[in-house]
Amino acid sequence: MPRKFLKQDIPVVLAGDYNVAPTELDIYPTQVVGQGRADPAEEPRRVQGAGGRRAGRDAIRTLHPSKPMFTFWDYKRNRWPRDAGLRLDHLLLSPALAPRLIKAGVDRKIRGEEGASDHAPAWIVLT
């Protein structure tokens, strides 16, 4: 989150495909041959700060702290039907906006449509 927004207490949402899976819940369970459980890279965790104040409050993880909610399923290896997804799309809220969060989710139905993107939209509702 840019410091100028934090200092001025401006309500801001940073939204987008960050190609970051900050927690174990944000990547489907898998095994890498000879290496055991695959884990999200350490670098992305530092970049996003796992939803900390510096990065912004992670809206999905705030309201769904223990539920996998994927936003991306690669077209390869039958990942959509197997629900082998990743949460790469994020909605990060500034401290001024975070208290107004009332709902957050992922519209999986869109991803299942014919000819759909490999991403499903993440969404929030604010008061």
Explain how this protein is built.
- The protein has 127 residues and is α+β, with helices and mostly antiparallel strands.
- It has one domain (3-126): Deoxyribonuclease I, Chain A (4-Layer Sandwich), CATH 3.60.10.
- Helix content is 20%, strand content 21%.
- β2 (31-32) and β3 (36-37) form a beta hairpin.
Strand line-up of the largest beta sheet: 1-5-4
Strand content: 15-25%
CATH class: Alpha Beta
The CATH topology annotation reads as: Deoxyribonuclease I, Chain A
CATH structural architecture: 4-Layer Sandwich
Map the helices and strands.
Layout: H1 3-8, E1 13-17, E2 31-32, E3 36-37, H2 42-48, E4 57-58, H3 59-63, H4 79-82, E5 89-93, E6 101-106, H5 108-111, E7 122-126
Antiparallel strand pairs: 1-5, 2-3, 4-5, 6-7
Labels describing this entry:
about 130 residues, alpha+beta, 3-stranded antiparallel β-sheet, two-stranded antiparallel ribbon, 5 helices, elongated
Short characterization:
The protein is α+β, with helices and mostly antiparallel strands and 127 residues long. Helix content is 20%, strand content 21%. Strands 1-5-4 form a 3-stranded antiparallel β-sheet. A two-stranded antiparallel sheet has the order 2-3. Strands 6-7 form a two-stranded antiparallel sheet.
